[in-house]
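ugh ok fine here u go
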Amino acid sequence: MPAGIDIGSRTIKAVSLKDGRLIDYQVAESGFDPHRQSIEMAKKYHPDRIVATGYGRHLAKKHFADEVITEIKAHALGARFFFQDCLTVLDVGGQDSKVISLDSSGRVINFQMNDKCAAGTGRFLEIMAASLGFSLDEFGIEALRGAKDIKINSMCTVFAESEVISMKNSGYDPKDIAKAVHLSVVEKLIAMLHRVGYGGNIVFSGGVAKNRCITGLLQERLNIKIDTPSVPDITGALGAALYAAQTIEEHDKTADTAD
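structure:
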């Protein structure tokens, strides 16, 4: 049984496959000991082969994973599993965001990552939500109710938080501020999409893809439909599991040839 694990900055995702089908997945907080958490999650599957991706992939390789692949390759494979005509992957996680451009066969031809700053990531949204007194789950819902168009001028997390607090103290409706924060994130993501170039078939992966306001604003601004997996945050782990399945198949073919 092939398995994949994505050890991210905020959460750990694990996936198992059987006969090319997704049969189980787990999502858990990384916590204070992501290494131990990862091992326990992997144990559940008793995998024939496990491939790791994400921030903690090299630690996983040192202790339990058979192989590692980059997040770029993992998300490309995972997105193609969910949507076979995918030409662009927009992945927004806890600490980074990335745009991956694919050719018609699913091969990565270009990509860009925003991994030096929290702007436009799940962490940015989490901090802004807390500044307005919302939980992260409430934040996108409240932003959808925002009516007045106002603008957040800074995407630096520290300055944006100060700006949000100033707006709140000036009497702006928190729902309108929430919408402004979401718009600022969407504008940053669209700028990344334009820099890389994107096809009409965009798949939105990562935990932030569960935010209906972000997804809705992206579709509105780009004027195209964006596909989102039913569980978008497992896309990378799924890609790692698919790669594990590929290597098992290649090994079996080599063994048959040798016989």
